[in-house]
Specification:
8 helices; about 10% strand
């Protein structure tokens, strides 16, 4: 497999950095190719700017239009083009980060904002039907994606009854709204809990869990998100009434089967 590993943590001595190093060594041991986008080490700029698109700052910036035009004409900023080339090369995307305020660090969010532009990651229509190709279909269809996330909380508090909310709900904007939206198959996330309290022994367990997930990248069953154009949604993109049962509201309504419980 060809794996692009994208990570964001401000300290090269962090738990995330150690997991990244162990993960890349595991990919080597399993015979996979890999490339790395360590956003801290790269000094990645997360802020969308007119210069990303060779856009005249005197003119109003419509990001979707300007980014698509720049992608089509080859005038995107070189740092954006380099990341897109890595994504095109890869068949698997691993995104690793600490869970901060229930989301990604700003540098990683900005990587998606700048790299996943219209024309490259979305904005395609089905020529037969005219419907947009998204949510299970799109330019990135055929690729797999997985989140590796560290959190200070315990596993149980990121489950369905936990005070922090279910992890798959917290990751829904990324897993469903970015990966699945662009057509990627989404593997269940790997949570490394208690990030600030790991001992050498518990770190060894965490690294073993990461290696086990990397060993099965090609065979792990994905999250069972509904396809937009499979008939589950009407022409207004609303779930048909018989599928939107009261017990399945919010993110849960958009799975054909519930995610498996988090591993302890």
């Amino acid at each position: 497999m060809k794996v692009l590993w994208v990570s964001a943590h401000p300290d090269a001595r962090s738990l995330n950095a150690s997991l990244q190093a162990d993960g890349l060594r595991a990919l080597d041991a399993y015979g996979h190719e890999h490339r790395l986008s360590d956003l801290r080490a790269m000094g990645w700029n997360p802020v969308v700017d007119p210069s990303d698109y060779a856009h005249d700052p005197a003119d109003r910036l419509h990001v979707g239009t300007a980014s698509e035009r720049a992608y089509r004409t080859g005038t995107l900023s070189p740092d954006i083009r380099a990341e897109q080339e890595k994504i095109d090369w890869a068949d698997t995307l691993i995104v690793q980060f600490p869970l901060w305020w229930y989301g990604m660090p700003a540098q990683l969010k900005g990587w998606f904002d700048r790299v996943f532009v219209k024309g490259f990651a979305f904005g395609l229509d089905d020529p037969a039907t005219g419907r947009p190709r998204r949510y299970g279909d799109g330019r990135l269809t055929g690729k797999r994606a997985m989140v590796v996330v560290t959190a200070g909380a315990r596993t149980a508090t990121l489950g369905p009854r936990g005070v922090n909310g279910d992890l798959n709900d917290l990751l829904f904007p990324l897993q469903h709204g970015t990966f699945w939206y662009t057509g990627m198959t989404v593997l269940p996330p790997l949570l490394i809990p208690g990030a600030d309290r790991l001992t050498p022994d518990t770190y060894a367990t965490a690294a073993d869990r990461l290696r086990a997930r990397l060993r099965t990248l090609a065979t792990t069953p994905p999250l069972a998100f509904r396809h937009q154009n499979s008939g589950d949604y009407d022409d207004e993109l609303l779930l048909h009434p018989h599928l939107a049962a009261p017990r399945h509201l919010g993110p849960a309504a958009h799975y054909t089967a519930p995610p498996a419980p988090l591993a302890p």
